[in-house]
Amino acid sequence: MKIYNTMTRKKDDFIPITEGEINMYACGPTVYNYFHIGNARPFLFFDVVRRYFKYLGYKVSYVQNITDIDDKIIEQAIKEKTNFNEIAERYTKAFFDDLKLLNINYADFNPKATEYISEMIDLINTLVVKGNAYESNGDVYFSVESIPNYGKLSGKNLNELQAGARIEANTQKKNPADFTLWKKAKDGEPSWDSPWGAGRPGWHTECVVMSRKILGQTFDIHGGGVDLIFPHHENELAQAYALDGEPLANYWMHNGFLNVDGNKMSKSLNNFFTTRDIMKDYDPEVIRFFFLSKHYRSPIDFNEEIIIESKKALANFYSAFSSIDIINILDQDIDIYEFNEAVQAFKEAMNDDFNTAKALAVMFDLVKEIKSKQNSLKKQQAAALTLYELGQVLGFFVDLEDRLTNSVDQHAEKLIELMINYRLEAKQEKNYAFSDRIRHDLSEIGIELQDTPQGTIWKIKE
Length: 462
Hints:
Layout: E1 2-5, E2 10-13, E3 21-26, H1 37-55, E4 59-64, H2 71-80, H3 84-101, H4 117-130, E5 133-136, E6 139-142, H5 158-165, E7 179-184, E8 199-201, H6 203-215, E9 219-225, H7 229-244, E10 249-255, E11 258-260, E12 263-264, H8 275-281, H9 284-292, E13 300-302, H10 304-324, H11 340-351, H12 356-371, H13 377-393, H14 400-406, H15 408-428, H16 432-444, E14 447-452, E15 455-460
Parallel strand pairs: 3-4, 3-9, 9-10, 11-13
Antiparallel strand pairs: 1-2, 5-6, 6-7, 7-8, 11-12, 14-15
């Protein structure tokens, strides 16, 4: 397996610290509102990473934190005239509810920042004692010049960072690029006692403490969106190096940006959508297909046209399952060895830096095998079971029976297949006028037929 490592800027051979085990950490939500559709991408992708490792037989320990104290949470509490705990609890619950709708499995551990305040204070105090951090008027800052190679993860030059930081110069800092470890409390803000007075930890310290506390000094994979490389992940790494000279993680994985209709998502452009709102209009599984149809490191554009295409593509899977009546064969002892090459092609795609787009292509090849009139029923069934197995690795086909039995679309597809059979019978009886009429009438309602050596296939006209 090869994983693109942000630290090395290349695909590295993946070698876990402990054979057969994977320890991974991905940054979770700051719970001040419902998470937006851009947040959904890393949540969903790292769910797939974990699923695939488990499919390969690894024991996986997956940590995803909850940032339940932050400026945005405090601002939302003030806006709603309530306390920060109420805001954090409400949107933490909403976060888990929305994960469930997206069929994203909960992490093994979801530590909350407020549960580790004492450990954060201890870490900050250690850095102060070691000379890597300093107190200034109740705030504590990390000295970026106290460690070598600051900026290595993000590829940023310290001199450039210093010049940029001077634009918003903080006279309390020794160096404009130094970052906050402990924030002095303002009047009325939630706070905790510390050696430097009342305050709360900085965001970058929270993740260092929680990840190391649960997964150990150095773990296998640290993940998140590309927007977190700097400053968040760079500053996490800096603290870990300062503590013991070891990296926080061996592999750093980052998914690409999500744009909306070609533009960066922002409230000012009125293109800011929460995942919860999107799921009111689109099946969560369609959203999953949309994200996985593109390589995770590539930027992806969210627009209605692409979502509709994702819906059509996903329908092909269920059409294939319906044609073979898969529900009645799920528990049968059917040998799927015949499609071992497809399984291996799927693994090769996923082993190449989790190329889900190629993995989906393998699954569509299986759809062709299921629908091929030249294949025996046994071979079609084997292809269907293989498709079902691989789809589950990517998080598809939840509640399969309900989807197949209760979907109007599936009944419509069966009617189309029935019309194709009537047309075939008409052609065999040389009733070409009736055969042509079936083709014409289906075309009028947007269904295009194509006669191939393997039989007649249909698609929705573009």
